C-alpha cells in the first residue's frame, strides 16, 4: 500500500474548523511514516506558519480568487488545476483526502487515475442543506471511494440522500491537555467565529436576561473571536456588565484553562472542535441542541446541558443552572474529560489507518 497522502482543503490558513483538523491529521499521519502533503486552494489572510512541519505544505494560488466570474477567475483556476495536477504527479499515486466540497470540485477536474479518494464534510447534513451545499456534496462525492460524515446519524442521512459510499469518522483532538481547567473559574467563555450561524447575539441576549435577573454577579463573560458580528457584539456590550470581547487565540487551551463554562449557542454545527477541547480539559458546556455531533459530544447531557437553539431564555437558564451548582459543574467536567478519551488523536488515527487499508483493497 502506498504511504503517500495528499490532504486538500479550501485553505490551510484558518485557525479553526476543517483547517485545524487537516493540520492535526497531517502531523499525526506523518509521525506514523506517511509521506504527507497538505494543499490549500487559496490563501486566506495571514499565512499560517507550519513551523518545523513533518509534512509538505502547498498552496495552489498566491492570491484569492476574484469575487466576480470572468477571464481572470478562469485563468487563475486553470493555473490552480495545473499546480494541483503537478503535486499529484510528483510521486506515486496514494490517497487523496478532500476536507471540503469546494476543494473536491477542483480535484474532480484533475486526472486522479491510481488515486484512492476520500471526501469529507465537516458539519451536519442539516448545515449542508441550510447553506445550500447539499446538492454540491451529492454531485462532488458520489464517486469517491469513501465519503465521511462526522457522526453515524449524519452518515445515515447522507445515505438516505443518495450517497451510497457514506460512512463516518469523528475529528480528533489536536492534543490531550495534561491538566484540567481551573475549577474556581467564574468565567463563561464563547470561543469561535462571530457570525450568524454561531449565534453569539443569542448569548448576549441570554447574558442580558441573567443580569436583569440579578444572577451570576460574580461571573464574567468572555467573547473570544472575530467575524461579521463584531460591531453588533460591541454595541450590545455597552450597557452590559462583566463582558469582554477578546481577539482569537491560536491555542484554545490558553483560554479554556481559565474557563468555568463553555457557551455554544450555535444554530448549526457539525462536531465542534472547541466543544471537544473544552470537555477534554474538564470544562462543562451549555450548548444549543443543534446537531447530532453536539448531542454525541455532550453524551445526551452527561457532559453538559442541552438547550433549545435560538432560545436566549433557555440559554440563560442553562448557564445559571450550571454556574450556581459547583457540584454539578465538577461532575459534568469529570465526565466530559473521560468521554473525550474516545476522540484522542492516536485513537482516531488508528481508525484512519484502518480506512486506508479498506479503500486500498
Automatic annotation (TrEMBL):
InterPro entries, per the entry: Glyco_trans_4-like_N
Gene3D superfamilies: Glycogen Phosphorylase B (3.40.50.2000)
Pfam families on file: Glyco_trans_1_4, Glyco_transf_4
Stretches assigned to the Glycosyltransferase subfamily 4-like N-terminal domain: 16-164
Name listed for the protein in its UniProt record: Unannotated protein
Amino acid at each position: 500500500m502506498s504511504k503517500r497522502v495528499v490532504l486538500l482543503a479550501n485553505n490551510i490558513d484558518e485557525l479553526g474548523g476543517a483547517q485545524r483538523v487537516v493540520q492535526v491529521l497531517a502531523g499525526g499521519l506523518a509521525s506514523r511514516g506517511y509521506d504527507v502533503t497538505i494543499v490549500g486552494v487559496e490563501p486566506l489572510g495571514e499565512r499560517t506558519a507550519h513551523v518545523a512541519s513533518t509534512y509538505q505544505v502547498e498552496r495552489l494560488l498566491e492570491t484569492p480568487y476574484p469575487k466576480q466570474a470572468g477571464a481572470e477567475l478562469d485563468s487563475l483556476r486553470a493555473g490552480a488545476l495545473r499546480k494541483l495536477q503537478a503535486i499529484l504527479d510528483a510521486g506515486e499515486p496514494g490517497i487523496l483526502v478532500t476536507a471540503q466540497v469546494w476543494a473536491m470540485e477542483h480535484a474532480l477536474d484533475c486526472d486522479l487515475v491510481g488515486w484512492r479518494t476520500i471526501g469529507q464534510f465537516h458539519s451536519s447534513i442539516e448545515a449542508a442543506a441550510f447553506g445550500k451545499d447539499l446538492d454540491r456534496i451529492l454531485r462532488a462525492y458520489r464517486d469517491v471511494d469513501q465519503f465521511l460524515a462526522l457522526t453515524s446519524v449524519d452518515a445515515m442521512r447522507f445515505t438516505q440522500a443518495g450517497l451510497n459510499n457514506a460512512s463516518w469518522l469523528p475529528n480528533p483532538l489536536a492534543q490531550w491537555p495534561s491538566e484540567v481547567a481551573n475549577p474556581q473559574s467564574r468565567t463563561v467563555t464563547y470561543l469561535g467565529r462571530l457570525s450568524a450561524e454561531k449565534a453569539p447575539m443569542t448569548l448576549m441576549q441570554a447574558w442580558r436576561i441573567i443580569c436583569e435577573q440579578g444572577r451570576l454577579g460574580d461571573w464574567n463573560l468572555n467573547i473570544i473571536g472575530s467575524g461579521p458580528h463584531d460591531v453588533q457584539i460591541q454595541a450590545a456590550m455597552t450597557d452590559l456588565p462583566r463582558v469582554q470581547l477578546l481577539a482569537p487565540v491560536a491555542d484554545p487551551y490558553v483560554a479554556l484553562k481559565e474557563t468555568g463554562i463553555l457557551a455554544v449557542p450555535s444554530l448549526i454545527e457539525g462536531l465542534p472542535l472547541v466543544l471537544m477541547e473544552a470537555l477534554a480539559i474538564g470544562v462543562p458546556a451549555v450548548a444549543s441542541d443543534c446537531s447530532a455531533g453536539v448531542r454525541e459530544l455532550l453524551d445526551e447531557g452527561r457532559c453538559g446541558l442541552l438547550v433549545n437553539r435560538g432560545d436566549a431564555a433557555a440559554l440563560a437558564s442553562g448557564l445559571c443552572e450550571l454556574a450556581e451548582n459547583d457540584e454539578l459543574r465538577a461532575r459534568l467536567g469529570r465526565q466530559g474529560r473521560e468521554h473525550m478519551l474516545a476522540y484522542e488523536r492516536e485513537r482516531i488515527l488508528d481508525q484512519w489507518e484502518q480506512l486506508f487499508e479498506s479503500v486500498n483493497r
